[in-house]
Amino acid sequence: KMYATSYGGAKRSSHILFASDDEATAQEVLDKLNSGELDFADAAKQYSTDTASAEKGGDVGWDKLTNFVSEYQTALDGLEKDQMSGLVTSSFGIHIIKCTDVFNAPEEITSSDQLPSEFLDQIKKTISSSKQSEAYQTWLKEYKEAADIVINEMPEGLPYYVDMTKYQKEDDSA
Predict the structure, then answer these.
(1) Between vectors from CA 9 to CA 7 and to CA 12, what angle results, nearest 5°?
(2) Between 30 and 174, residue with greater pLDDT
(3) pTM of the full predicted structure?
(4) Phi/psi of residue 95, each to 5°?
(5) CB atoms < 10 A from the CB of 29, how many?
(6) What was the pLDDT predicted at 9?
(7) Which phi and psi (to 5°) does residue 13 adopt?
(8) On the CB side of 165, how many CA atoms lie within 13 Å of its CA?
(9) What are 38-46's contacts with CB under 8 Å, separation 24+?
(10) If both were cysteines, with which of 19, 38, 60, 144 could 32 make a disulfide (CB 3.0 to 4.6 Å apart)?
(11) What is the pLDDT of residues 138-169, one digit of tens each?
(12) 13-27, 41-55, 111-125, 135-149 — which is least confidently predicted?
């Protein structure tokens, strides 16, 4: 549950990306989307310059699993499920953003079906990494405790002998 609540309010989105100098096409596509003349996923496949997301109808995933540029995130924050933005300009170009899903963490989690699979994958990675770190720390502590360490005095009279007494202070507390 503690992991699931950290994803509360997460938003999934799709976008159509246009070159920053192609505002005319972006506006034309936005008008056709608003009038219902074009379907968002089809428009993404046809017009988006972000080819990776275009193949998936513009889907770029959940905001809590990705770091979007601030202009994109700000626009997405203002959208509810199934709402679409106007033209949003970022360093990548001009976006039309559609919020496709919002995750509200349930009061009680009784089944993993209550969470999107992407969140489950991320939670599994987090727990696995935490367990590995814990196991390593335990092993290291036990190894140190079980080690039989003996510190021998430096032998005298060797060619590489260093007399450490001249480096010691009279009062070590200083």
Answers:
(1) 85
(2) 30
(3) 0.58
(4) -110, 145
(5) 24
(6) 76
(7) -145, 165
(8) 4
(9) 40/14, 40/16, 40/84, 40/98, 41/14, 43/16, 43/96, 44/14, 44/15, 44/16
(10) 38
(11) 999 999 889 988 888 877 777 777 777 778 77
(12) 111-125
Query: Alpha helices of 6-81 — where are they, by DSSP H?
Result: 23-35, 40-47, 51-54, 70-77
Long-range contacts of 36-41 (CB under 8 A, 24+ apart): 40/14, 40/16, 40/84, 40/98, 41/14
DSSP state of 8: T
Which tokens sit at 66?
A: 């990705």
Do the Cβ atoms of 63 and 18 come closer than 8 Å?
Answer: no
Q: Are 93 and 18 in contact (CB under 8 A)?
A: yes
Q: Which residue has the tokens 């202070």?
A: 169
Q: To the nearest 10°, the Cα dihedral for 103, 109, 112, 116?
A: 0
47-91 residue pLDDT tens: 999 988 999 999 998 888 778 999 999 999 999 999 999 999 999
